[in-house]
Amino acid sequence: MSLADPRELLALRLAATEKRRVWIALLYFGVAALFSGLFVALGAALTATSTMCLILAVFFFSCGLVTWWVRATAGDRNQRFVELLDLDPSRVDRIYGQRIVLSGRYSTAQPIEQPESKHVGESRLLLLAVELAEPSRLKRRLGLHKFSARVSREELLELLAFLRGLAPEAKGAPGKGSS
Fold this sequence. Notes:
The structure is a single chain. The protein is built from 7 helices and 4 strands; from the N terminus they run ααααββαβαβα. By secondary structure, it is α+β, with helices and mostly antiparallel strands. The chain folds into 2 domains: 16-72; 88-166, no CATH class. The longest helix has 25 residues, at 48-72. The chain starts with 5 loop residues before the first helix and ends in a 13-residue tail after the last helix.
């Protein structure tokens, strides 16, 4: 699906990516509920096992809250990002494509070498990644400086060309000394 305005396509793909975070947050809350249930089932005695269950319940509940907060604020953050591309494209630090490589039960995102049109191949699981030069350490730790969206091959090439036209000084994939 290609829209007339690449900004609309980018906003649409970013929104679709953020919807998947709801399931991750629910998973965290479910694990927290499991450990809370184990804590209650172990009774009133405060043992090492019950203390560990309580600590894990609080940890997973906190992870769920952070994930839910990131999801809840994603719409405004994505909108500001799309506006930033026109207002201050010099804040864009990196623009690159990634392919998701599945191996057994695990998957990893590997950067695609430039030029992507020659190296993307027939991969079906592709991501567009854009990183901002974010001065805030907290935002970097939470991953709020990075925007990624799952796209098709044609959309990846179209959006990479569009974004690199807006921010020509942006670097490529991390660890690849390319620009």
